[in-house]
Each structure stands twice: as structure tokens, then as C-alpha cells.
Amino acid sequence: MQPKEVIFVDYSLLWLDWKPKRALPAYTKRIAGMPATRQGKAAQRELMAGLKAMGAETMLCGKVADGPSIKLTESLGSGEKITLKRSGDGMELIGSGIALLYGVFHLLRHLALGEDYPEWDSSPAYAIRMLDHWDNADGSIERGYSGRSFFFRDGKPFFSERTRDYVRLLASCGLNACCINNVNVHANALKLLTGSYQRELKRIAVCLGEYGVSLWLSVSFSSPIELGGLETADPLDPRVRQWWKDTCGKLFASIPNLAGFLVKADSEGRPGPHSYGRTQAEGANMLAEAVSPFGGKILWRCFVYNCTQDWRDTKTDRASAQCDHFAPLDGQFRGNVYLQIKNGPVDFQIREPVSPLLGHLEHTASMVEFQIAQEYTGQQKHVCYLLPMFREVLDFHMEHKPEHDTVKENISAVCAVSNTGDDYNWTGHDLAAANLFGFGLLAWDPSADPEEIAREWSILTFGDDPVVTRTVTDILMNSRRVYEKYTVPLGIGWMCVPGNHYGPSPDGYEYDRWGTYHRATHKEIGVERGPDGTGYTEQYSPRLAAMYASAENCPEELLLFFHRLPYDYRMKDGRTLLQRIYDDHFEGYEEAQAMSDAWNELRDKLDPEVYARVQDRFREQLRCAKEWRDVINTWLYRLSLIPDEKGRKIYM
Ligand code: GCW
């Protein structure tokens, strides 16, 4: 006889690990209302389980309760809009099944935060609030820093209890869409389209659906060749179009809750319409037509650029590529195509200007793609809370229209590259879970305050000791600026080790094909992107173009993104450019040290394992920050032979 398999839940529940509360309002004793939908029932179940975990003795009362209660009133057809209102001494939640679920999580969170009557009347800002997984079928994750995939194992989709808990985490912060496989679609993942893994996919899809999360798949543009045996993937070829229609017919019929495809085409070696002399619009529209009978959508990435650039070519500018390729096509995409635009016109760096393409799409649906996987921002070994950056982008005025011209008003959806894996704590660094939670809240309400989110996340995760909350919130809020200071200066980006993108290597990409150059000499550094340079600034509205084109008016944190300047260029505060870079690197390291010291002060206030895990990460962050500081400063000193004015140690 086979021994029975014992299943251990070997992972944390993050902010859903509700802690016992001393005092809960009396209404938490009773749940009234009888939701009929699967999502409504999930809401009721979550409410019951959450309240119990907080220490309430809750009972289900049927339609009406005798005494103060939480009443779940399910109203069909009202989308995601949720109302939480005080009703006598109780609370009433009104909305569709999925809205009730969002309402329940809101209520639980606010009870955990100590609020008795958290009234809320809210609809999400975007209909698609998405996480993109770069998970491969073999279980590895491209740019994954927290273990292996929990969606794939041994070449196939994989379902476990963890899938359910993941989906609960997503829904609890308002996320409602998830693409489970890498945009770089490798051999095994191709088969996701053909029905080979229907059973496994369906299980995942059904589980996601129960929590209102739609399933998306990344597909390869040349699937008709790779899977269909055709010799072409030309989007205008009738056989290719028919192949996609037939394939979608079968796939959508067998996978409930499948919402559409995410496509990386003509990008970093991936196949796409350009190979056939067709435009990005012709490529996207062909797929859009194939998914449209099933209400499907196509998320088409705009990360199209020349990745085989010759470093001797000083005219081609990778930053311009998104706009060059897509702005002229505005209006040519079908209604069910969303253009997915990377934050950062170049690539997810710690500091880049807002992509100008976000101001050029009047007639095309668009979405911003953030990256909470910390590829260039410390790989979840360094603490780097990204919400302040996301807020800056969403609040940015593109200045093409007199009003409603901020990024958050121009886009129709948001997504982020996920930072999760099968590590115990899901995100490698315990503090990186704040990016996951925060991204969800911001996707629901782009005006949410990153500091308030950090505070809430800290209380839900570590309990409500005010010293812990203050310290963790401060660490999170300072972390991006600190990381920026000890790594790459003033928006220039890169300077990281090629390939794995971790740690310093200032010339690592300098003579390479990826179009990411600083072109530093003994006198000056940077690429001029104004009208006398690559002309990139011209992609912005006139006032912004003029502002960025002038070194004097350009925001200083982006100075070297836009300009090539001598080391003795005077910054606004009188320091030279070089001295500012030296100072930032020395200060950045010291501030990282201060964050680590602040964490150490919490030793007696935290779970010892959590404390030690984060302390370990800080050790590595400090080692690496010192490396960045010394390599960048020494490299600049060796080029310029200008010493640090304060006489601090630079290595020769
Ligand atoms: O920044 C680059 C990453 C690649 C990634 C690519 C993309 C999935 O280094 O790993 O590929 O971006 O966004 O497509």
C-alpha cells in the first residue's frame, strides 16, 4: 500500500495571516445574507475565516440576523462596485459576488487596523488590474528572485493549494487578472495553446475565477509555424488567420475564465509581424479578431526596439523606440487591443522619465507595465519599495490636453511583472511583499498614498506595535532613494552586470548591442537626448520637451538621462556633477547602513525567523551597496582624476 501523502502548507499567508484582536465590534458575531454566486460564497467564507482568526465567535445567521451583524447583500450585475455602509450597529456590504469579496477583504483589513466602521463606496479605476508572471513551463522564472514557479512544474501547469492562496492574496488587494506564463514563450509553454494541458489549465482557471481573477496566457506570434505546421505566421495570410481562429475556438471553449493573450512580438528576438513586412497593428488585430468571438482581449507589448545596435551608432536611441513604433499607429488597433507600455521608455530602471508614448494614444487603449520583480532594483535582496515611483508615473501630466491629461487618466489598465515564487515568504525579501500588496491597492485606486499603504501593510504583516510600524514604514519610504543613490546616478541607468543585472559593472553594456550607453570619457558623461542629440525629447509635449532639453531646467534626478555633461557641470546647489555623484554614493551606503541598523532595533519586537531573514537580506544589501559605491566612484575617479572634495576613500 502506498503511504498517504501528507501535505504541509509550507508558506506564509502574508497579510492574510489575520492576528487575534483584543476588541472587535459586536457586529462581528453575526453574518447575515445568503450570497448565491461562487464568488459571493467565497466572500462569506473569507469573512467567517478572517473573523475567527481575529478571535471573533462568528456565526452564520441566514437571511436576517437577530442583533447587530455584517450583512452581505448580493446584487447581481453591478460589476466590481462595492458599498460598505454602517447600518445601525452593524455593517452592510452591497455588491455583486466579486464586489462582496473585495468588500470583505476591505472590512477585514480595516478591522485588523483597528477601525470599527470602515465605510467604503468604491469602484476600481481600471477594469484590468493584472500581474504578469514570467514563469517558464520547466518551473524556472525569468527574473524570478523568490524561488520557483508555483504555476508550472516539470514542463506542465501545476495546481496546488498554494494556487488558491495566491489567488486569495491577489483578490484581497483588488487584483483581478493574471498572466501565468513568460512573455518569452519557450518550447513547452507553446503547448498551452493546443489543449495538451487542458485539464491542468482548467483547474487553475476555475480557481482563479472563484476569486474574480481572469486567466491570461502569453503566446508566441509564430505559433502557426511552431504548432500548426504552416510555413508562415504572416498576419495577413488567410491560413494563418484561420489557424488562430480555430485554435482560439477550441481553447476558449475548454478553458473557462480565459480572458485573452499577452504578446511580446518583434522584441528581443521574438517573432512578430515585422518579419512579414506587416505593422504592429496588423499583427495585433489579427489576434484580436481571433479572440473577439469569445470576448477576449489582446495585450500587445510595446517593448519593440533594435536590440542589435552597434555601439558606434550614435543616432539610434533605444529610449525613442516605443514612440517611434507605436505613436504613428494610434487609431489603427481594434477595440479589444491594449498596448502595454513599459515604465521606463528604456527598461524598468530605478529612475527614468515617463514614457512619452503614454501621451500619444488618443484612440487606442493602453496600459502601463510596472515591474515589481526587482530586476534592476536589487533583486529582492535589497529593500526597494516601488510604490512612490509608481505614483509619480501615474500622476504625471503629459501636457497634450488641457485637462485629464495625467497618465492615470489616459490609461485603461495596469499591470506589473510579478515578484512571486514558491519561497516560504513568496517574495524572497519579506519587505518586498509590500510591493505586491501596494501594487494591488494602487491599481484599484491610483490616488492611494504609498506611505499609508506601507503603514497598513506593516501592521497587517508585523502587528500593530507603533515602533515597528514607524520603523518599517520609514525604511520602505526611504528605500528607493537610497538604492538610487548608491547605484546609478541621475537617471543614467544600467551600469549593472550584464545578463543577471545585479551588482555594478559600469562598462558592462558599453560596447554591447543593447543600446544602453553612457559614453563616458575623462571629461564628460551621458547621452544628449535633446534636439541637438538623439532628438528623443521631441516626443514630449512642447513644454516638457523644452524643459527636458535644457540642462538647467531638467529635473536634476533625470539630468544624465537627458544630457551629456562635463564632470565640473554645476548642479543647482553649487556642487559639481561629479561631486554630487560621489556624495550620493557615500550617502547612499550610509543610509543603507542606517536602514539596517533601524531594522536591528526591532529584534525583540518581531518573530525571530522573520527578523533574521530580513537581517540576512540587509547584510547582502550592505555588501552590495558598498561594492556599488566603490566601483562607481573609483571608476569615475580613474576616468576624471578629480578627487573627492571631502577626501573620502576612493581606490586606486
Ligand atoms: O528587461 C528585460 C529583461 C528580460 C525581459 C524583457 C522584457 C521577459 O531583462 O528578461 O524578458 O525585459 O520585458 O520582455
Arrangement of strands in the largest sheet: 7-10-11-12-13-14-15-16
Helicity level, as a percent range?
25-40%
Mass-distribution shape = globular
CATH-level-4 superfamily name of the largest domain: Glycosidases
Q: Which ligands accompany this protein?
A: 4-O-methyl-beta-D-glucopyranuronic acid
Q: Helix segment count?
A: 18
Strand content: 5-15%
Radius of gyration, taken over Cα atoms and rounded to an integer in Å: 25 Å
CATH architecture call of the largest domain: Alpha-Beta Barrel
Q: Tell me the total number of β-strands.
A: 18
**Nearest-integer average pLDDT:** 96
What is the top-level CATH class of the largest domain? Alpha Beta
How many separate domains?
3
Could you name the CATH topology of the largest domain? TIM Barrel
Largest sheet: 8 strands, parallel, barrel
What would your notes on this structure say?
α9 links the parallel β13 and β14. The strands form 4 sheets. This protein has an 8-stranded parallel barrel with strand order 7-10-11-12-13-14-15-16. Helix content is about 35%, strand content about 10%. It is globular and about 80 Å long. It contains 18 helices and 18 strands. It is an alpha/beta fold and about 650 residues long. The mean pLDDT is about 95.
